[in-house]
Specification:
ten-stranded mixed β-sheet; Rossmann fold; alpha/beta
Length: about 250
Amino acid sequence: MKESKITMEELYSIEGFSWKIQLALIDLLCRCIEPTNAVELGTWHGRSAVIFSKYINDKQGLFWGVEPEHTRADITRKNCENVCPNGKIYIEKNISNYSDLNTKVIPFVDIVHIDGEHSFNAVYHDLDLVKKFILKEGLIILDDFYFDMYPQITQSAYKWLDDNPEYVLLAVGFCKGIICNKMFYKKYADMILDPTFIEELKKYDTGVEFLTVTRTSPFMDCPTLGICTNVSKDPYLGNECGDGKIEKITKM
């Protein structure tokens, strides 16, 4: 796993709404999968966009950001270009609130962050759109998932997952939903359940004292892992109906 390329001080110098622990999770996922190309729908000023740009820079890859508001789009582009002199930075603006990129030529990407327009229809549309250019092994991160202010995001995501059974909700944590293709569920679940993952997440300067990975019902009941803050000193909590253990998946 690569070393982190970010500092919270650097990211928090950029205007935005992301919490430190959210940014740490995004950075750790990038360290694990080492993306070549990345897309973000809804960049604001580019806090998370800068993280993606740092990682695609090494592979001279592409970061495609979407930000309809002109000033914010320009600020995002400048912030990304500052940390990514080798890769390609494209920031789309003057597009619809539904992130309508159907006419754009985008290479297959390893990771996508969806933080666009927050209506039920927009979230569903964005997930459908992402499906067109995400690699089978790619990860989709959906913002404001399980956030009280935006219940329609969670509802829309579950509807989309029902309609697209080849995908699964891999994990939830810090108001982020992480979606992957079922073919790669085992790979990513084992990655999160590896002690290194939680140990590395604890190293970030986030102010979080305890981090715990959970799956509190049997795998066949719900495969989704929870990544929680300050619920227990134990880094892993398993099935409440069983022996309390949480283990890596040996088969699907």
